[in-house]
Amino acid sequence: MSRSESIKKLRDQLVRRRDALHRALEGDLSLLRELHQEKTGDILDAAADTAQDELNSQLIEAESRELNAINDAIGRFDAGMFGNCDGCGKPIPLSRLRAIPYATDCIDCRRKAESKNGSGTTVLWNRVFDNAEVDSV
């Protein structure tokens, strides 16, 4: 199979994933609305609801980021720029695109960007927002 045929298949996968994410986000958001309208029982129920709301919120945020990346990738495809590295301009290997169809850079450029930005340091996974301050202990 040629590279152009493989890239067209990747676009189809992106469209299917985008549609699935739209449906998931609609369901997640409607579930959150329903849960907020219901009355909770006691303080333990309220705590459990709060924890579940936080998990749902983080899931929605992750799905939204992926959806934005997919929409950008589809836009790059339509503009004829899909599959080329933003950093060096070379074609991104198909193996990388199959793993991450919305990738915008090759492995070498991604590694350079991560080392330049210091992304190799400790990541605070308990933070929902990128610019949130860390709780002091």
TrEMBL record:
It comes from the Bacteria. The lineage of its organism: Bacteria, Pseudomonadati, Planctomycetota, Planctomycetia, Pirellulales. It comes from Rubripirellula reticaptiva. A zinc finger (dksA C4-type) spans 85-109. Pfam families: zf-dskA_traR. This is RNA polymerase-binding transcription factor. Residues 80-114 form the Zinc finger DksA/TraR C4-type domain. Keywords: Metal-binding, Zinc, Zinc-finger. InterPro entries: DnaK_N, Znf_C4-type_bac, Znf_DskA_TraR, Znf_DskA_TraR_CS. SUPFAM superfamilies: DnaK suppressor protein DksA, alpha-hairpin domain, Glucocorticoid receptor-like (DNA-binding domain). GO terms for molecular function: zinc ion binding.
